[in-house]
Amino acid sequence: RLSFLSPHRPPAMALLRALRFRGRVVASHVGTVHTLGRACPPRLVVCPLVASLRQSDLPAPPRIFPGGSIRHLADAAAGTSIVKDDLGTPEVESQPPLLVRAGLVGAATALMTPVFPIIGFNQLAFRFLDPVTRMAITGGTSMIYFSVMVLFPKAFFYAPLLLPFAVGNGLVATGVYLAADLAVGGPAALTRCKLGPLPLTGPLIGAVTAVTVPFVYPVSWAIVFPDMSSNGLWMDTEVYDLIWNWCYNSVMLPCLLTTGLAAGTIIHIVLQPMILGVPGIPWLHLAGGVLAVASLGLVALYSSSARNGVQHLREVDTEDPKYNGWIFPSRAPCFVQGESEFCWVLSLDYSSGELLSEQRQVRRLADGSYAVEQEALDSRSGPEMALRARELGQKVQDKRIRCYTSSRGAYLDTFSNAEPLRGQAIKDLLDGLPAAEAALTDALVLSVTGSVSRERLEDALRELLPHLLETPLAQRLRSSWLRTSWAQGPGSLPSLL
User: Fold this and answer.
1) Could you give the CA distance from residue 208 to residue 204 in angstroms, rounded to a whole number?
2) Please, what is the end-to-end C-alpha distance for the chain in angstroms?
Protein backbone atom coordinates (compact mmCIF):
# COMPACT_ATOMS: atom_id res chain seq x y z
CA ARG A 1 0.00 0.00 0.00
CA LEU A 2 3.01 2.26 -0.28
CA SER A 3 3.38 4.34 -3.44
CA PHE A 4 6.66 5.84 -4.61
CA LEU A 5 7.21 8.49 -7.25
CA SER A 6 10.47 9.58 -8.85
CA PRO A 7 10.56 13.35 -9.44
CA HIS A 8 14.02 13.09 -11.06
CA ARG A 9 15.41 15.74 -8.80
CA PRO A 10 19.16 16.42 -9.07
CA PRO A 11 21.31 14.54 -6.54
CA ALA A 12 22.52 17.86 -5.13
CA MET A 13 19.39 18.06 -2.94
CA ALA A 14 20.62 18.00 0.65
CA LEU A 15 17.50 16.88 2.49
CA LEU A 16 13.90 16.09 1.70
CA ARG A 17 11.29 17.54 3.99
CA ALA A 18 10.14 15.42 6.92
CA LEU A 19 6.58 14.22 6.44
CA ARG A 20 4.14 13.58 9.23
CA PHE A 21 1.42 10.98 8.71
CA ARG A 22 -1.07 10.03 11.45
CA GLY A 23 1.31 10.33 14.33
CA ARG A 24 4.25 8.65 12.55
CA VAL A 25 7.13 10.40 10.87
CA VAL A 26 8.63 9.33 7.59
CA ALA A 27 12.19 10.66 7.68
CA SER A 28 14.22 11.10 4.54
CA HIS A 29 17.92 11.53 3.81
CA VAL A 30 20.21 11.88 0.84
CA GLY A 31 20.95 8.68 -1.03
CA THR A 32 18.55 6.39 0.84
CA VAL A 33 15.00 7.00 1.98
CA HIS A 34 14.15 5.18 5.23
CA THR A 35 10.44 4.69 5.68
CA LEU A 36 8.64 2.24 7.95
CA GLY A 37 11.89 0.48 8.75
CA ARG A 38 12.89 -0.44 5.20
CA ALA A 39 15.26 1.16 2.74
CA CYS A 40 14.06 2.46 -0.60
CA PRO A 41 16.09 3.30 -3.74
CA PRO A 42 17.69 6.73 -4.00
CA ARG A 43 15.82 9.76 -5.47
CA LEU A 44 12.49 8.34 -4.35
CA VAL A 45 10.07 10.31 -2.24
CA VAL A 46 7.04 9.09 -0.36
CA CYS A 47 3.75 9.82 -2.09
CA PRO A 48 1.20 11.64 0.07
CA LEU A 49 -1.06 8.62 -0.39
CA VAL A 50 0.86 7.04 2.53
CA ALA A 51 -1.44 9.14 4.71
CA SER A 52 -4.21 6.66 3.97
CA LEU A 53 -2.45 3.86 5.90
CA ARG A 54 -4.24 2.58 8.98
CA GLN A 55 -2.55 2.91 12.32
CA SER A 56 -2.14 -0.87 12.43
CA ASP A 57 -0.19 -0.76 9.18
CA LEU A 58 2.68 1.07 10.88
CA PRO A 59 4.55 -1.76 12.62
CA ALA A 60 7.52 0.09 13.94
CA PRO A 61 8.89 3.60 14.30
CA PRO A 62 11.04 4.70 11.41
CA ARG A 63 14.77 4.45 11.58
CA ILE A 64 16.53 7.77 11.75
CA PHE A 65 19.66 8.17 9.75
CA PRO A 66 22.68 9.01 11.91
CA GLY A 67 23.24 12.73 12.19
CA GLY A 68 19.67 13.54 11.14
CA SER A 69 16.80 14.76 13.28
CA ILE A 70 13.04 14.45 13.06
CA ARG A 71 11.12 17.72 13.19
CA HIS A 72 7.37 17.68 12.93
CA LEU A 73 5.83 20.15 10.54
CA ALA A 74 3.49 22.58 12.25
CA ASP A 75 -0.15 22.07 11.61
CA ALA A 76 -1.41 24.39 8.85
CA ALA A 77 -4.33 25.46 10.98
CA ALA A 78 -1.95 26.94 13.53
CA GLY A 79 -1.21 29.71 11.06
CA THR A 80 2.54 29.18 10.89
CA SER A 81 4.28 30.68 7.90
CA ILE A 82 7.78 29.22 8.20
CA VAL A 83 8.63 25.94 6.52
CA LYS A 84 11.69 24.15 7.96
CA ASP A 85 13.78 21.25 6.80
CA ASP A 86 15.04 18.35 8.94
CA LEU A 87 17.85 20.42 10.42
CA GLY A 88 15.47 23.22 11.48
CA THR A 89 16.75 25.75 8.94
CA PRO A 90 14.08 28.27 7.82
CA GLU A 91 13.34 27.97 4.13
CA VAL A 92 10.34 30.12 3.20
CA GLU A 93 8.27 32.65 5.12
CA SER A 94 5.05 32.94 3.17
CA GLN A 95 2.80 34.92 5.53
CA PRO A 96 3.51 38.68 5.50
CA PRO A 97 3.98 40.68 8.71
CA LEU A 98 1.07 42.43 10.37
CA LEU A 99 1.86 45.89 9.00
CA VAL A 100 2.13 44.57 5.45
CA ARG A 101 -1.25 42.82 5.80
CA ALA A 102 -2.83 46.00 7.10
CA GLY A 103 -1.20 48.00 4.29
CA LEU A 104 -2.71 45.65 1.72
CA VAL A 105 -6.18 46.19 3.17
CA GLY A 106 -5.77 49.97 3.28
CA ALA A 107 -4.33 50.21 -0.25
CA ALA A 108 -7.06 48.02 -1.72
CA THR A 109 -9.75 50.09 0.01
CA ALA A 110 -8.26 53.34 -1.31
CA LEU A 111 -8.03 51.89 -4.82
CA MET A 112 -11.68 50.87 -4.74
CA THR A 113 -12.93 54.24 -3.47
CA PRO A 114 -14.10 55.47 -6.92
CA VAL A 115 -16.30 52.35 -7.12
CA PHE A 116 -18.08 53.01 -3.82
CA PRO A 117 -20.36 55.82 -5.13
CA ILE A 118 -21.39 53.54 -8.00
CA ILE A 119 -22.34 50.74 -5.58
CA GLY A 120 -24.31 53.22 -3.48
CA PHE A 121 -26.04 54.66 -6.54
CA ASN A 122 -27.17 51.21 -7.66
CA GLN A 123 -28.48 50.46 -4.18
CA LEU A 124 -30.46 53.71 -4.06
CA ALA A 125 -31.73 53.25 -7.63
CA PHE A 126 -33.12 49.79 -6.93
CA ARG A 127 -34.66 50.93 -3.65
CA PHE A 128 -36.37 54.13 -4.71
CA LEU A 129 -36.69 54.16 -8.52
CA ASP A 130 -39.19 52.21 -10.57
CA PRO A 131 -38.04 50.26 -13.63
CA VAL A 132 -39.25 52.93 -16.04
CA THR A 133 -37.19 55.63 -14.35
CA ARG A 134 -34.14 53.40 -14.22
CA MET A 135 -34.56 52.65 -17.91
CA ALA A 136 -34.72 56.38 -18.67
CA ILE A 137 -31.53 57.05 -16.70
CA THR A 138 -29.57 54.22 -18.30
CA GLY A 139 -30.76 55.00 -21.81
CA GLY A 140 -32.44 51.65 -22.31
CA THR A 141 -29.56 49.53 -21.03
CA SER A 142 -29.26 47.53 -17.84
CA MET A 143 -27.88 49.02 -14.64
CA ILE A 144 -24.84 46.72 -14.84
CA TYR A 145 -23.99 47.83 -18.37
CA PHE A 146 -24.58 51.49 -17.49
CA SER A 147 -22.36 51.21 -14.41
CA VAL A 148 -19.50 49.43 -16.17
CA MET A 149 -19.48 51.32 -19.46
CA VAL A 150 -20.51 54.82 -18.32
CA LEU A 151 -20.05 55.32 -14.59
CA PHE A 152 -16.79 53.42 -14.08
CA PRO A 153 -14.74 55.39 -16.67
CA LYS A 154 -16.08 58.70 -15.36
CA ALA A 155 -15.43 57.72 -11.74
CA PHE A 156 -11.82 56.79 -12.41
CA PHE A 157 -11.20 59.88 -14.55
CA TYR A 158 -12.43 62.16 -11.77
CA ALA A 159 -10.71 60.08 -9.07
CA PRO A 160 -8.37 62.93 -7.98
CA LEU A 161 -11.46 64.74 -6.71
CA LEU A 162 -12.09 61.74 -4.44
CA LEU A 163 -8.56 61.68 -3.00
CA PRO A 164 -9.65 62.97 0.48
CA PHE A 165 -12.25 60.21 0.69
CA ALA A 166 -9.73 57.58 -0.49
CA VAL A 167 -7.29 58.68 2.23
CA GLY A 168 -10.02 58.46 4.87
CA ASN A 169 -11.26 55.07 3.66
CA GLY A 170 -7.75 53.62 3.55
CA LEU A 171 -6.79 54.85 7.02
CA VAL A 172 -9.98 53.63 8.68
CA ALA A 173 -9.88 50.24 6.93
CA THR A 174 -6.25 49.80 8.02
CA GLY A 175 -7.14 50.58 11.63
CA VAL A 176 -10.15 48.26 11.67
CA TYR A 177 -8.13 45.38 10.22
CA LEU A 178 -5.31 45.91 12.73
CA ALA A 179 -7.79 45.78 15.61
CA ALA A 180 -9.48 42.63 14.24
CA ASP A 181 -6.19 40.85 13.55
CA LEU A 182 -4.81 41.55 17.01
CA ALA A 183 -8.10 40.66 18.69
CA VAL A 184 -8.48 37.16 17.22
CA GLY A 185 -4.80 36.25 16.97
CA GLY A 186 -3.88 36.28 13.30
CA PRO A 187 -5.25 36.01 9.76
CA ALA A 188 -5.87 32.27 10.00
CA ALA A 189 -8.43 32.81 12.77
CA LEU A 190 -10.01 35.63 10.78
CA THR A 191 -10.37 33.36 7.76
CA ARG A 192 -12.21 30.70 9.79
CA CYS A 193 -15.02 33.17 10.55
CA LYS A 194 -17.61 32.12 7.95
CA LEU A 195 -21.33 31.84 7.50
CA GLY A 196 -21.47 28.63 5.55
CA PRO A 197 -19.34 29.18 2.43
CA LEU A 198 -19.50 32.97 2.77
CA PRO A 199 -16.65 34.86 4.47
CA LEU A 200 -17.56 37.16 7.34
CA THR A 201 -14.34 39.00 8.14
CA GLY A 202 -14.09 41.11 4.98
CA PRO A 203 -17.77 42.14 4.90
CA LEU A 204 -17.73 43.03 8.60
CA ILE A 205 -14.56 45.12 8.23
CA GLY A 206 -16.09 46.84 5.21
CA ALA A 207 -19.34 47.57 7.05
CA VAL A 208 -17.57 48.97 10.11
CA THR A 209 -15.36 51.11 7.88
CA ALA A 210 -18.32 52.46 5.89
CA VAL A 211 -20.26 53.40 9.01
CA THR A 212 -17.42 55.12 10.86
CA VAL A 213 -15.42 56.75 8.08
CA PRO A 214 -17.70 59.78 7.37
CA PHE A 215 -16.46 61.41 10.57
CA VAL A 216 -12.87 61.11 9.31
CA TYR A 217 -13.52 62.91 6.02
CA PRO A 218 -13.09 66.47 7.38
CA VAL A 219 -9.63 65.57 8.69
CA SER A 220 -8.58 63.82 5.46
CA TRP A 221 -9.92 66.78 3.47
CA ALA A 222 -7.71 69.12 5.51
CA ILE A 223 -4.71 66.84 4.86
CA VAL A 224 -5.21 66.68 1.08
CA PHE A 225 -6.45 70.25 0.50
CA PRO A 226 -4.85 72.40 3.19
CA ASP A 227 -5.46 75.57 1.19
CA MET A 228 -9.21 74.88 1.32
CA SER A 229 -9.19 74.10 5.05
CA SER A 230 -7.22 77.06 6.34
CA ASN A 231 -10.23 78.21 8.36
CA GLY A 232 -10.20 75.11 10.56
CA LEU A 233 -13.04 73.32 8.82
CA TRP A 234 -12.15 69.98 10.39
CA MET A 235 -12.64 71.45 13.87
CA ASP A 236 -16.06 72.95 13.15
CA THR A 237 -18.78 71.12 15.09
CA GLU A 238 -21.40 72.14 12.53
CA VAL A 239 -19.59 70.04 9.93
CA TYR A 240 -19.95 66.92 12.07
CA ASP A 241 -23.60 67.72 12.76
CA LEU A 242 -24.13 67.94 9.01
CA ILE A 243 -22.43 64.56 8.52
CA TRP A 244 -24.64 63.01 11.19
CA ASN A 245 -27.83 64.35 9.59
CA TRP A 246 -26.81 63.32 6.06
CA CYS A 247 -25.25 59.91 6.61
CA TYR A 248 -27.11 58.38 9.54
CA ASN A 249 -30.74 58.30 8.49
CA SER A 250 -33.11 55.74 7.04
CA VAL A 251 -31.91 56.44 3.48
CA MET A 252 -28.13 56.73 3.69
CA LEU A 253 -27.29 54.33 6.54
CA PRO A 254 -28.52 51.23 4.62
CA CYS A 255 -26.65 52.58 1.60
CA LEU A 256 -23.42 52.83 3.62
CA LEU A 257 -23.87 49.33 5.02
CA THR A 258 -24.58 47.82 1.60
CA THR A 259 -21.56 49.52 0.06
CA GLY A 260 -19.31 48.39 2.91
CA LEU A 261 -20.53 44.79 2.79
CA ALA A 262 -20.10 44.54 -0.99
CA ALA A 263 -16.67 46.19 -1.02
CA GLY A 264 -15.48 44.15 1.95
CA THR A 265 -16.51 40.89 0.30
CA ILE A 266 -14.64 41.74 -2.89
CA ILE A 267 -11.50 42.81 -1.03
CA HIS A 268 -11.64 39.69 1.17
CA ILE A 269 -11.76 37.35 -1.81
CA VAL A 270 -9.00 39.18 -3.67
CA LEU A 271 -6.58 39.64 -0.76
CA GLN A 272 -7.00 36.32 1.06
CA PRO A 273 -4.13 34.51 -0.76
CA MET A 274 -1.79 37.45 -0.18
CA ILE A 275 -2.65 37.87 3.51
CA LEU A 276 -2.51 34.17 4.41
CA GLY A 277 0.43 33.48 2.14
CA VAL A 278 0.95 30.65 -0.30
CA PRO A 279 3.21 27.84 0.99
CA GLY A 280 6.53 27.81 -0.82
CA ILE A 281 6.28 31.43 -2.05
CA PRO A 282 8.08 34.10 0.03
CA TRP A 283 5.74 36.87 1.15
CA LEU A 284 8.06 39.47 -0.39
CA HIS A 285 7.40 37.97 -3.82
CA LEU A 286 3.62 37.80 -3.41
CA ALA A 287 2.27 40.21 -0.80
CA GLY A 288 5.22 42.57 -1.17
CA GLY A 289 4.86 42.68 -4.93
CA VAL A 290 1.10 43.25 -4.75
CA LEU A 291 1.59 46.06 -2.23
CA ALA A 292 4.17 47.73 -4.48
CA VAL A 293 1.87 47.49 -7.50
CA ALA A 294 -1.04 48.83 -5.44
CA SER A 295 1.08 51.79 -4.34
CA LEU A 296 1.95 52.61 -7.95
CA GLY A 297 -1.72 52.24 -8.84
CA LEU A 298 -2.68 54.74 -6.14
CA VAL A 299 -0.23 57.28 -7.52
CA ALA A 300 -1.48 56.82 -11.08
CA LEU A 301 -5.16 56.81 -10.10
CA TYR A 302 -5.16 59.91 -7.93
CA SER A 303 -2.57 61.95 -9.81
CA SER A 304 -4.12 64.82 -11.72
CA SER A 305 -1.09 65.06 -14.02
CA ALA A 306 -1.92 61.60 -15.39
CA ARG A 307 -5.21 62.85 -16.84
CA ASN A 308 -5.25 63.40 -20.59
CA GLY A 309 -7.80 66.20 -20.35
CA VAL A 310 -5.39 68.57 -18.55
CA GLN A 311 -3.69 70.75 -21.17
CA HIS A 312 -0.51 72.74 -20.99
CA LEU A 313 -0.88 76.37 -22.02
CA ARG A 314 0.97 75.81 -25.30
CA GLU A 315 -1.51 73.02 -26.24
CA VAL A 316 -4.64 75.17 -25.91
CA ASP A 317 -6.36 76.03 -29.18
CA THR A 318 -7.96 79.41 -28.59
CA GLU A 319 -9.73 79.20 -31.97
CA ASP A 320 -11.85 76.30 -30.79
CA PRO A 321 -15.55 77.23 -31.30
CA LYS A 322 -16.45 76.42 -27.69
CA TYR A 323 -14.15 79.24 -26.55
CA ASN A 324 -15.58 81.75 -29.03
CA GLY A 325 -19.33 81.51 -28.49
CA TRP A 326 -21.48 84.61 -28.19
CA ILE A 327 -23.42 83.41 -25.15
CA PHE A 328 -21.54 82.08 -22.12
CA PRO A 329 -18.34 81.05 -23.92
CA SER A 330 -16.17 78.52 -22.12
CA ARG A 331 -12.73 79.30 -20.81
CA ALA A 332 -9.92 76.80 -21.34
CA PRO A 333 -8.36 75.55 -18.08
CA CYS A 334 -4.64 74.88 -18.52
CA PHE A 335 -1.39 75.06 -16.60
CA VAL A 336 2.26 76.06 -16.69
CA GLN A 337 5.09 74.79 -14.50
CA GLY A 338 5.23 77.90 -12.35
CA GLU A 339 5.60 81.56 -13.29
CA SER A 340 9.28 81.00 -14.07
CA GLU A 341 8.21 79.27 -17.30
CA PHE A 342 7.55 82.77 -18.68
CA CYS A 343 10.95 84.06 -17.59
CA TRP A 344 13.40 82.85 -20.22
CA VAL A 345 15.63 85.58 -21.66
CA LEU A 346 18.28 85.62 -24.38
CA SER A 347 21.97 85.88 -23.55
CA LEU A 348 25.41 85.21 -25.05
CA ASP A 349 27.95 82.71 -23.82
CA TYR A 350 31.05 84.51 -22.50
CA SER A 351 33.48 81.95 -23.87
CA SER A 352 32.07 81.13 -27.31
CA GLY A 353 29.58 83.87 -28.12
CA GLU A 354 26.87 81.25 -28.65
CA LEU A 355 23.26 82.36 -28.30
CA LEU A 356 21.70 81.00 -25.08
CA SER A 357 18.35 80.99 -23.28
CA GLU A 358 18.48 81.62 -19.53
CA GLN A 359 15.64 81.10 -17.06
CA ARG A 360 15.35 83.68 -14.30
CA GLN A 361 13.96 83.05 -10.83
CA VAL A 362 10.66 84.72 -9.93
CA ARG A 363 9.40 85.64 -6.49
CA ARG A 364 5.75 86.41 -5.85
CA LEU A 365 5.06 89.33 -3.54
CA ALA A 366 2.24 89.72 -1.03
CA ASP A 367 0.30 92.13 -3.26
CA GLY A 368 0.20 89.60 -6.13
CA SER A 369 2.98 91.19 -8.18
CA TYR A 370 6.28 89.55 -9.09
CA ALA A 371 9.92 90.31 -8.55
CA VAL A 372 12.54 88.93 -10.93
CA GLU A 373 15.80 87.74 -9.42
CA GLN A 374 19.13 88.13 -11.21
CA GLU A 375 20.06 84.52 -10.48
CA ALA A 376 19.65 82.11 -13.41
CA LEU A 377 17.83 78.85 -12.70
CA ASP A 378 18.66 77.10 -15.97
CA SER A 379 20.44 77.66 -19.25
CA ARG A 380 19.78 76.10 -22.65
CA SER A 381 21.58 76.39 -25.96
CA GLY A 382 19.75 78.35 -28.66
CA PRO A 383 16.93 80.91 -28.56
CA GLU A 384 14.04 78.42 -28.62
CA MET A 385 13.17 78.45 -24.91
CA ALA A 386 13.18 82.26 -24.74
CA LEU A 387 10.96 82.55 -27.83
CA ARG A 388 8.55 79.93 -26.47
CA ALA A 389 8.34 81.76 -23.13
CA ARG A 390 7.51 85.00 -24.96
CA GLU A 391 4.68 83.29 -26.85
CA LEU A 392 3.31 81.78 -23.64
CA GLY A 393 3.42 85.17 -21.94
CA GLN A 394 1.31 86.68 -24.70
CA LYS A 395 -1.08 83.72 -24.79
CA VAL A 396 -1.77 83.68 -21.05
CA GLN A 397 -3.18 87.21 -21.30
CA ASP A 398 -6.02 85.94 -23.51
CA LYS A 399 -9.35 86.20 -21.69
CA ARG A 400 -10.43 82.83 -23.13
CA ILE A 401 -7.78 81.08 -21.05
CA ARG A 402 -7.73 80.26 -17.35
CA CYS A 403 -4.16 79.26 -16.53
CA TYR A 404 -2.85 77.77 -13.27
CA THR A 405 0.65 77.14 -11.99
CA SER A 406 0.12 73.36 -11.63
CA SER A 407 -1.71 70.58 -13.43
CA ARG A 408 -3.65 69.87 -10.25
CA GLY A 409 -5.05 73.40 -10.18
CA ALA A 410 -6.08 73.13 -13.84
CA TYR A 411 -7.70 69.74 -13.26
CA LEU A 412 -9.69 70.89 -10.23
CA ASP A 413 -10.31 74.32 -11.82
CA THR A 414 -13.29 75.86 -10.04
CA PHE A 415 -13.47 73.03 -7.48
CA SER A 416 -10.46 74.36 -5.58
CA ASN A 417 -9.36 77.65 -4.07
CA ALA A 418 -6.42 77.90 -6.44
CA GLU A 419 -6.49 81.21 -8.29
CA PRO A 420 -5.66 81.36 -12.00
CA LEU A 421 -2.89 83.61 -13.18
CA ARG A 422 -3.94 87.19 -13.80
CA GLY A 423 -3.10 88.41 -17.28
CA GLN A 424 -2.15 91.91 -16.13
CA ALA A 425 0.22 90.56 -13.50
CA ILE A 426 1.97 88.38 -16.10
CA LYS A 427 2.20 91.36 -18.46
CA ASP A 428 3.87 93.42 -15.74
CA LEU A 429 6.21 90.50 -15.06
CA LEU A 430 7.25 90.28 -18.71
CA ASP A 431 7.76 94.06 -18.92
CA GLY A 432 10.09 93.84 -15.94
CA LEU A 433 12.24 91.10 -17.44
CA PRO A 434 15.70 92.19 -18.68
CA ALA A 435 14.93 90.55 -22.02
CA ALA A 436 17.16 92.83 -24.14
CA GLU A 437 19.34 94.33 -21.41
CA ALA A 438 20.92 91.00 -20.47
CA ALA A 439 21.83 90.08 -24.05
CA LEU A 440 23.25 93.55 -24.85
CA THR A 441 25.29 93.53 -21.67
CA ASP A 442 26.74 90.17 -22.67
CA ALA A 443 27.60 91.58 -26.12
CA LEU A 444 29.34 94.57 -24.51
CA VAL A 445 31.40 92.29 -22.26
CA LEU A 446 32.43 90.15 -25.23
CA SER A 447 33.39 93.24 -27.21
CA VAL A 448 35.51 94.74 -24.40
CA THR A 449 37.21 91.58 -23.28
CA GLY A 450 37.84 90.29 -26.79
CA SER A 451 37.15 86.70 -25.72
CA VAL A 452 35.67 86.03 -29.16
CA SER A 453 36.62 87.41 -32.55
CA ARG A 454 34.83 90.41 -34.05
CA GLU A 455 33.45 88.28 -36.88
CA ARG A 456 31.99 85.77 -34.40
CA LEU A 457 30.44 88.59 -32.36
CA GLU A 458 28.88 90.14 -35.48
CA ASP A 459 27.36 86.79 -36.44
CA ALA A 460 25.95 86.37 -32.92
CA LEU A 461 24.42 89.87 -32.97
CA ARG A 462 22.86 89.34 -36.39
CA GLU A 463 21.16 86.28 -34.96
CA LEU A 464 20.26 88.01 -31.71
CA LEU A 465 18.91 91.42 -32.77
CA PRO A 466 15.77 90.26 -34.65
CA HIS A 467 14.62 88.53 -31.47
CA LEU A 468 14.99 91.73 -29.44
CA LEU A 469 12.92 94.05 -31.65
CA GLU A 470 9.68 93.24 -29.77
CA THR A 471 11.10 93.72 -26.28
CA PRO A 472 10.05 96.65 -24.07
CA LEU A 473 13.54 98.19 -24.39
CA ALA A 474 13.31 98.22 -28.19
CA GLN A 475 9.88 99.83 -28.04
CA ARG A 476 11.17 102.57 -25.74
CA LEU A 477 14.16 103.24 -27.98
CA ARG A 478 12.01 103.52 -31.10
CA SER A 479 9.86 106.17 -29.46
CA SER A 480 12.83 108.18 -28.13
CA TRP A 481 14.78 111.04 -29.79
CA LEU A 482 17.48 108.63 -30.95
CA ARG A 483 17.41 108.25 -34.71
CA THR A 484 20.15 105.64 -34.99
CA SER A 485 19.60 102.63 -32.83
CA TRP A 486 19.67 98.85 -33.02
CA ALA A 487 15.92 99.02 -32.29
CA GLN A 488 15.34 100.38 -35.80
CA GLY A 489 16.16 96.97 -37.27
CA PRO A 490 19.02 94.63 -38.19
CA GLY A 491 20.48 97.26 -40.55
CA SER A 492 21.68 99.31 -37.56
CA LEU A 493 24.23 96.68 -36.53
CA PRO A 494 27.36 98.71 -37.59
CA SER A 495 26.32 101.64 -35.40
CA LEU A 496 25.83 99.27 -32.48
CA LEU A 497 29.33 97.88 -32.83
Assistant:
1) 6
2) 107
